[in-house]
Amino acid sequence: MSTRTEIVSEFYGQYDEGERLRRSRHGQLEYAVTMNYIHRFAEKGAKVLELGAGTGRYSIALANEGMDVTAVELVESNYAALRENCTGLENIRAYQGDATDLSRFEDGAFDVTLVFGPMYHLYEPEEVDRAIDEAIRVTKPGGVLLFAFISVFAIMYANYFFGNWALGQEENFTSDYKIRHFKEQLFTGYDVVEFEKLFEHKPVTWITTAGVDGLLEPIEKRPDFDIPEEDFGAFVDWYMAFSEKRELLGCTNHLLYICRKK
User: Comparing C-alpha atoms, which of 94, 91, 92, 114 is closest to residue 42?
Assistant: First the structure.
């Protein structure tokens, strides 16, 4: 049986997440909306930790804005690219590591903690809980945490309308429609309320839950899909106005749970 790290590393060794955020419209929207939320809580000089930093799309942008950034990435190939991309930047440090073990960092070391990939690939309740606890521990009291997660319903909409619905249903739900989490899924999805309940007994105060890419991922696969440059800026502004509407959250692929440490 492959380990979680092996499964995730095999996928990201063949996939360029940074390019997705640059080239696809759903990736561009996700990046724009996510940066908007980061900027609400982090400014120049802020000590920012990003867990699941990939090749550095967010971390390097924030370092270039004058933030003091620490980036942690699990996958060896991503980490190598991250270190190379950090060349010449003095206010960013890169480490290879797992979000479930942040023992190299002291308690309360960061103003803002971004958990932008690990929750997609943590399947055992104990590991999920440990990652949340570690992120909270290394954030200062009053600091803000942003956790990215995926809607299980959006996983279905985006990937299983191609003659393979029964396969997706079996993979993501039990026979009585309870949500499943296991490592062979690679990406594990949540009901929004299910994810929020992970924090019920944690020393944090919920700020908001927001979608970051709406319905774009499944729609973008249509051959007639088109959002020209002259429309895209307006579309981003429109989406930001509705990104926190509860009735829309289950349809967005990627979401943010945002909270403040007590």
Answer: 114
If residue 12 lies in a helix (H) or strand (E), which one and from where to where?
helix 4-12
Residues 6+ apart with CB under 8 A from 225: 25, 219
For 50, the enclosing helix (H) or strand (E) is strand 47-51
> Cα separation of 137 and 242, whole Å?
32
> What pTM, to 2 d.p., does this model score?
0.95
Q: What is the dihedral of CA 43, 46, 47, 48, to 10 degrees?
A: -10
Q: What is the pLDDT of residues 170-192, one digit of tens each?
A: 999 999 999 999 988 999 999 99
Region at 66 (left for phi over 0; alpha for psi -120 to 50; beta for the rest): left
CB of 172 within 8 A of CB of 152? yes
> pLDDT tens digits, residue range 81-100?
999 999 999 999 999 999 99
Give the three-class secondary structure for 145: strand
Percentages (nearest 5) of helix, strand, coil residues in the chain? 45, 20, 35
